[in-house]
Design brief:
alpha/beta, binds nicotinamide-adenine-dinucleotide, 17 helices, 42% helix, single chain, globular, 6-stranded mixed sheet, 20 strands
Amino acid sequence: MATDVQVAARKVVSLNPATGETLRELACASEQEVHTAVARARGAQPSWLALDIRARIAVLNQFQHLLHEKKSDVARLITNEAGKPYVEALTTEVMVVLDAARFLIENAYRLLRDEPLPHGNLAMKMKAGRILREPYGVIGIVSPWNYPFSIPATESLAALVAGNAIVIKPSELTSLVVLELASLLHQAGVPKEIFQVVVGDGATGAALLNSEIDKLIFTGSVATGKRIAQASAARLLPVVLELGGKDPMVVLEDADIDVASSGAIWGAFVNAGQTCLSVERCYVQRKLYEPFLAACVRKVKQLRVGNGLNPETDIGPIIHERQLNLVAQQVEDAKASGARVLTGGTRLPELGPNFYAPTVLADVTHEMKVMREETFGPVLPIMLFDTEDEAIALANDSEYGLAASVWTRDRSRGEAIARRIDTGTVMVNDVVSCFGISEAPHGGFKSSGTGRTHGRFGLEEMVRIKYLDSEHLPRMKKVWWYGYGEAFTGQMEGFVNMQFARGVGKRLVGAIRAAGVFLGKGRL
Ligand code: NAD
């Protein structure tokens, strides 16, 4: 029905979280535009796949070169739109992507080529088997704001090298960074139809989920992830879900206090704590508890909060006021339940709209929200434990299972504990940096998601596995085809015994009984 009421297009506004300044307003892609983008991607994908994989690797090489050339501009843009210190944008975003490209340039050909599959089953010896890795076609990516460059870029590079086309919906808060990623990929030689950005909000993401994509790679909150899992189940759309975390850090009594406390504060406050892998719960064995608290407080008091473009800044702003309020509420809830605020616990309005002081909490318990719900802010809650078993039980007492860390001077003790913690990654004597190891699979257990990105397993997510089976003796009927009867049954019993009976004698008798089957007599 025609109407003369003009429906205003929805917009997303890109803001600088440190200053509140509007960087740009962009119209949300409509549902129709999302569907059109996916259809264009599907139309173009066969020619992208038809390129030799070496040609796609060459494109990645060119992308890596361009990104390296433009590293400072890209890092500055990330700082402007997401707030993190420039040096973090450079190391945890740009450098991670340069290295992810390196991994794929070095390994994609080997990991994606056909893989011979020798058969152990005697009856199947006359066949050549191969595993083929074929691209899905069009992969949808929905990405978050906290690592607006490294998350979508690492996923995109893996999807592209495998021969997929991509339609990506960036976070409504960080569209500009993903538009820059698109520009670099296009300059490097990725056709425009093969990498398309649909800017928008949650509804745009939902439109992409409901479009004709072949797989969705989603990174974001558990709440949105669960909605996506439900919708995708209805149409059996394969999805990778990289969701939230509540990562525990376990500090044993033999840990180096100076190293572990520095690890704790960096792990808790990098990107103002807005890191899926950040230290969200810290457990310290009794002997170290008080000195560990003192070391953390002394170091945190030296951290400088401010605009990420200032090279002296350690901690930037929180992304927006809603998130700031959530962090402040968790700290208030903990205080009200008896936690001690050793430092921080306040907003810093004098610095700008979204700043919060790095906060260390002691004497927290698992009844407090700060130990159960994702905080996603600069808060380090520290709790005491006595025994290893207690520490492991506390670490595992969470609906999340993304990553964890164990701190000790005894590596084998650390690794033994690491094996008992239910998370997708456990680091011994380090935190967060696993995300920068391009070979290492990234992903969670429990509510932290399913599937993996990064490395070999991340690349495997971008392909469908096809088994190709081909006969060496095409003119021979198979022994198991029709021709059933008493003789055949006896031969088959012999054949089974020949392979699996205990004792050489029984196997030999089986072989003799089975022999007739190979003559193929009586096969239909
Ligand atoms: P979010 O769930 O609010 O949004 C993520 C993306 O989903 C955005 O692009 C958003 O527009 C889109 N979206 C929202 N509703 C949608 C819907 N119904 N259908 C489809 N798309 C929809 O998360 P966020 O606040 O952007 O990101 C922070 C969260 O992401 C944290 O929980 C963090 O732990 C998690 N995270 C996880 C990882 C990981 O690798 N496991 C990495 C980074 C961030």
